[in-house]
Amino acid sequence: FPPLAGTDWVTGDKERLINIVLNGIDGPIVVNGETYINAMPQHGFLSDQEVANVLTYIRQNFGNKASEVTAAEVSRVRDKKSPAGIH
Questions:
Q1: pLDDT digits (tens, 9 = 90+) for 11-59
Q2: Is the Cα dihedral 29, 32, 34, 36 positive or negative?
Q3: Which of 21, 22, 37, 51 is least crowded, fewest Cβ atoms below 10 Å from its Cβ?
Q4: What is the pTM of this model?
Q5: Do residues 64 and 10 touch, judged by C-beta distance below 8 A?
Q6: 43 CB burial (10 A radius; 0-12, 13-18, 19+)
Q7: Cα–Cα distance, 39 to 19 (Å, whole number)
Q8: Any long-range contacts for 35-39 (C-beta under 8 Å, 24+ apart)?
Q9: In this structure, what are the phi and psi dihedrals at residue 70, rounded to the nearest 5 degrees?
């Protein structure tokens, strides 16, 4: 599995990270120059606050020092994917 420490996938673009949790990811990704081919199922069943809590945790632990993810940020990303903003 790809590392959580010291990778732009975790500490970089919040929207990309939120999308991965909400919608899952399948297929190859390159993390720190190494290719990983694993599936991560979607976790859209989690509340906005739960997603924010998990992502803030991984962005601020394992040696990472990235900003928090808020429930409002998760909600905005979720609304972009949901028809008429329905959760």
A1: 999 999 999 999 999 989 999 999 999 899 999 999 999 999 999 999 9
A2: negative
A3: 37
A4: 0.87
A5: yes
A6: middle
A7: 14
A8: 36/1, 36/2, 38/1, 38/2
A9: -100, 160
